[in-house]
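Task card 7
Instruction: Convert sequence to structure tokens.
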Amino acid sequence: MGILEDVVLNARSAVDSVSKKAGKVLDMSKLAIAAADIKTEISRKYEILGRVVYEENTTDKDYRKSIRELIDKITELKAQLEEVNATIENAKQKIKCPACDAFNAKGSVFCNKCGEKLPTAEKNDISPDDMIDFAEDNFEDDDIGL
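Output:
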């Protein structure tokens, strides 16, 4: 059971380490790192799961409980990864109004808030700073499992 506790702690620290709380600022690059860390943790869990299944099948020991716990943890990590990826994709699909700083759907011609004509998409790919602003305005830490 000690190895499972270590794995859970590693997963938690991976997610916790990607987000510093300085107000409500979420850095999109840290979200990308969080996604990579979660993928790494999923791979580790699969490796451990394989070892446990092998052990169960080559010995007389019963590891069904450990296998179930690993499967549940992998499922939880996959859900966290989906949330982080959805947050990143949502931010990428927005453009920022130069007049009022409101976020609008990519491809919008006019701002939904102030009515200002928006620049074309080619000239207005969202910058990292705009991604941070979008994340601050639209998500709480709990929305992405952090």
